[in-house]
């Protein structure tokens, strides 16, 4: 068998996953947004805001800075290279590939806030602030407008439980785009996974772990991860049913109303970050209608995969979301159960069975392997289907939800 390079790196957010840098700060200040930008500055409304949204800055108050976003963009797929950062094994791990990742230039800030006027006065919200063209270029405006339009369109259908709800938005004199979302939680699935991984590392380093307590912890963790996956896939299924792709699905694009595993019964995961969402209604996939810069890479990949007709492009787009969901699944199946930094990452078109055999040789990956082994290896089976190299063979979101691994295995 040919030697295959296996790049061992710590798990980071990929495929346009938003990376959150948390900020410390004071508590809720109660400042009105208009005053946070200076006295009596005129406010210009975001373009094409739907009638049901709040569009006056006077209707909001801004609180403390929560953190900031940076977007990572997939530019191409390339084979792994050899070097000092790689390890080799004579086993055929599979046709591993990696992403070439480029950091986008758009930096986004998050603030706490609340509605200060009207029937929803006092409702907690989170502001997502896109920089103006001077700081973020035309791309920032395009992303803000796309996210607003995607939420407006989806919320005109219903108010899905597993999507973050947009309540309003406006544009400041400085050109910043402020989008206001109902507060669905401050923690993401990435935050939860990192905290769980650190707890595992501490318990192992201390060398004292009561077997009964460990068993109960593992059960709670498995259940919590399954609930995150179920919620994410329900949100994705809703989007696909309404002809919208997510295209930025990852652990940081899932908001949790609680990160506590003991509170799993109350957990509601919600999708966010629809800045790269793509409209896949047939009229939007006609020749010439898929040339928008935000979706350019998607349609290039579609063409390379042999998807040329409207229906082939639509199928490819949905399958591309499922592939990202598969990477999310892999992230959540490993990171919460393992020590920090012990996972194969940036791998594509995996031979899942070979990866399982590889992981079995590392005791620090034991709990992740046991998790995916549940139900006669049901987890590996689902992972293989979602990451299938042939987009035509990947399941739909509803198919993922109905898979036995997400229904009764845990």
UniProtKB/TrEMBL annotation:
GO terms for cellular component: chloroplast. This is Protein kinase domain-containing protein. Residues 60-406 form the Protein kinase domain. It comes from Arabidopsis arenosa. InterPro entries: Kinase-like_dom_sf (IPR011009), Prot_kinase_dom (IPR000719). It comes from the Eukaryota. Gene3D superfamilies: Transferase(Phosphotransferase) domain 1. One of its GO terms (molecular function) is ATP binding. PROSITE patterns: PROTEIN_KINASE_DOM.
């Amino acid at each position: 068998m040919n030697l295959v390079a296996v790049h061992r790196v710590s798990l980071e957010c990929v495929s346009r996953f938003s990376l959150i840098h948390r900020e410390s700060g004071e508590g809720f200040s109660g400042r009105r947004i208009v005053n946070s930008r200076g006295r009596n500055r005129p406010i210009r409304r975001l373009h094409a805001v739907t009638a049901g949204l709040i569009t006056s800055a006077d209707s909001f108050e801004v609180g403390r800075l929560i953190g900031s976003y940076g977007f990572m963009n997939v530019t191409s797929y390339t084979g792994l290279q050899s070097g000092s950062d790689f390890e080799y094994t004579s086993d055929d791990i599979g046709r591993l590939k990696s992403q070439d990742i480029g950091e986008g230039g758009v930096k986004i800030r998050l603030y706490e806030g609340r509605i200060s006027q009207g029937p929803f006065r006092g409702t907690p919200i989170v502001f997502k602030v896109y920089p103006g063209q001077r700081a973020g270029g035309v791309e920032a405006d395009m992303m803000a407008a796309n996210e607003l339009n995607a939420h407006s369109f989806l919320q005109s259908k219903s108010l899905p439980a597993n999507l973050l709800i947009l309540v309003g938005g406006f544009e400041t004199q400085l050109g910043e785009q402020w989008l206001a979302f109902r507060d669905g939680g401050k923690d993401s699935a990435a935050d939860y996974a990192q905290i769980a991984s650190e707890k595992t590392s501490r318990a192992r380093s201390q060398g004292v772990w009561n077997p009964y307590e460990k068993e109960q912890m593992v059960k709670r963790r498995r259940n919590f991860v399954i609930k995150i996956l179920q919620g994410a896939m329900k949100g994705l299924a809703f989007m696909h049913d309404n002809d919208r792709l997510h295209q930025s699905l990852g652990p940081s694009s899932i908001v949790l109303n609680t990160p506590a595993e003991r509170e799993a019964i109350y957990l509601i995961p919600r999708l966010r970050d629809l800045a790269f969402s793509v409209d896949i209604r047939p009229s939007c996939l006609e020749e010439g209608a898929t040339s928008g810069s935000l979706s350019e890479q998607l349609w290039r990949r579609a063409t390379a995969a042999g998807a040329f007709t409207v229906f082939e492009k639509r199928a490819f787009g949905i399958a591309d979301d499922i592939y990202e969901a598969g990477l999310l699944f892999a992230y959540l199946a490993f990171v919460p159960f393992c020590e920090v930094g012990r996972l194969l990452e940036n791998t594509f078109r995996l031979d899942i069975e070979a990866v399982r055999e590889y992981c079995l040789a590392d005791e620090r990956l034991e709990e992740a392997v046991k998790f995916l082994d549940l139900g006669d290896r049901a987890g590996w089976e689902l992972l293989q289907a979602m990451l299938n190299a042939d987009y035509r063979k990947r399941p739909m979101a509803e198919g993922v939800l109905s898979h036995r691994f997400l229904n009764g295995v845990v």
